[in-house]
Write a structure and sequence with these properties.
Largest sheet: 5 strands, parallel
Number of domains: 3
CATH superfamily of the largest domain: P-loop containing nucleotide triphosphate hydrolases
CATH class of the largest domain: Alpha Beta
Oligomer: single chain
Shape: globular
Number of helices: 14
Bound molecules: zinc ion
Strand content: 5-15%
Distance between the termini: 37 Å
CATH architecture of the largest domain: 3-Layer(aba) Sandwich
């Protein structure tokens, strides 16, 4: 996303805090940026990395110096990004070991070096362990930025070596104002934001055409399973191809709507809560072991959804 959008309006306090630490030469070795997903932490971290590398020394990266252009091109030699090879997979130990060489070598430019690890919860146990030494002694003017929406999944040994910087989702008004600005043509930005659980960047992603197609497919499957026109195994085979985070979020939003409705009507159905349990459990399982067979997980989920569908509503 373009430079002009960072920090996002709900991140100004965190930005001011980092500027203050930086100006007084009190930046720690490592920062853990933690908060809900889809609210812009990774973009914030990348923007701060750019600021540290910028030769302009302002409160925003200038965007035009050689360093800013190298960062924008993804080729600044003093910035390393560590991420899983594929979304949802783990960060491997060799990726972390390579950081030691990066830290041991002399900086290419005079000034900061930055290591950006996102999502940090993707570090597997051995990779997290291998990171400890780098976290303790990264070398002068080297900053590690770890970004996570699940700090609880990081080993305490990693967390304790980082300064925590907390982020929150914006309140609905601020989130909606930002989303409307980004999507002036969206028919119903409010519904998008709601489907995204109040997380504006997630809402923005939901509006992308390929995402909309996946969501439409999920809607079709959910309706067909609930009304009995499609059996769970058949639905599972199709759903396994969907983006898990996207599809499970959408299913959760839909289920939450039904639960709310049942409570308002004073007819809360236990099967709805069983289905919610199944969904939460499936999310936990897939978060813990991304290599699980998604079709099996979906099969169980659709079975619970089928039972909940029999309670009416769909
Ligand atoms: Zn610059």
């Amino acid at each position: 996303m373009d430079t002009e959008f960072w920090p996002l309006p709900w991140q100004e306090q965190q930005w001011a805090r980092l500027l203050e630490l930086s100006a007084s030469a009190r930046l720690p070795h490592a920062l853990l940026l933690a908060g809900p997903s889809g609210t812009g932490k990774a973009g914030f971290a990348a923007h701060f990395a750019k600021l540290l590398l910028c030769s302009d020394r302002g409160n925003q990266p200038c965007g035009s110096c050689r360093h800013c252009r190298l960062v924008a091109a993804g080729s600044h030699p003093d910035l390393v990004r560590v991420q899983p090879a594929e979304p949802g997979k783990a960060i491997r130990i060799d990726q972390v070991r390579a950081l030691r060489e990066f830290c041991a070598a002399r900086p290419h430019q005079s000034g900061w070096r930055v290591i950006l690890i996102a999502p940090a919860e993707a570090l597997n146990a051995s990779a997290a362990n291998a990171l400890l030494k780098t976290l303790e002694e990264p070398g002068a003017e080297t900053l590690l930025l770890l970004v996570t929406h699940e700090p609880g999944r990081l080993p305490a040994t990693v967390r304790s070596r980082c300064r925590l910087l907390r982020f929150a989702a914006p309140d609905r008004r601020a989130g909606l104002a930002w989303l409307r600005h980004r999507l002036p043509d969206a028919a119903d930005a409010g519904a998008l934001l709601q489907a995204a659980g109040g997380r504006p960047l997630r809402a923005l992603a939901l509006a992308a055409p390929e995402t909309a197609a996946q969501l439409a497919q999920l809607e079709r499957l959910a309706t067909a399973v609930a009304d009995g026109t499609l059996v769970p195994p058949a639905a599972a085979a199709e759903s396994a191809k969907l983006d898990w985070a996207l599809a499970s979020d959408a299913l959760l939003a839909r289920l939450a709507g039904r639960i709310r409705q049942s409570v308002v009507q004073r007819r809360p159905a236990p099967v709805l809560f069983d289905c919610l349990d199944a969904l939460v459990e499936a999310r936990r399982e897939l978060a813990a072991s991304p290599n699980l067979n998604a079709e099996l997980v979906w099969d169980r989920l659709w079975l619970a959804w089928r039972r909940a569908g029999a309670a009416g509503g769909g």
